[in-house]
Write a structure and sequence with these properties.
Number of domains: 1
Radius of gyration: 14 Å
Order of helices and strands: EEEEEEEEEEEEE
Number of strands: 13
Strand content: over 45%
Largest sheet: 13 strands, parallel
Length: 131
């Protein structure tokens, strides 16, 4: 525990390397990078980076995210979600800001009014389902 009994935020990003397979939930007060495979929920108090070899079968909750790999689940980002050209996302997105590079594929719903995480009412992205 850090000052004032608050959890410490790690200085460097946690890393799940390529070739690593995890089943279960991952929680971090800071940043996390995934190049392996995770079946479960990620809850990060910082940025989630999903590398091009990374796969998440489950939900992602974080402040910012860069997605280069595959996600099948819900992504809820408080600030900026960036879908890179190699991203393949299937599911629901809720974010304040969204950046989609040419080549990224997204199939699902998108809500961009910074709605609370409990909201399940879908809103569709104006740019279409695939960018």
């Amino acid at each position: 525990m850090g000052k004032n009994n608050l959890p410490e935020v790690p200085v460097t990003a946690n890393l799940i390397q390529s070739g690593t397979f995890i089943t279960g939930d991952v929680e971090s007060n800071g940043n996390i990078r995934i190049d392996g495979t995770l079946k479960g929920t990620i809850n990060a108090g910082g940025k989630v980076i999903l590398g091009s070899t990374g796969t998440v079968e489950g939900d992602i909750f974080c402040i910012n995210a860069d997605i280069e790999g595959r996600v099948n689940g819900t992504i809820r980002v408080k600030e900026l979600l960036s879908l890179k050209s190699t991203a393949l996302v299937t599911g629901e997105i809720a974010t304040d800001k969204l950046s989609i590079e040419p080549g990224a594929k997204f199939t699902g719903t998108c809500r961009m009014d910074n709605a609370p995480a409990e909201t399940t009412e879908p809103a569709y992205a104006e740019a279409g389902a695939e960018a």
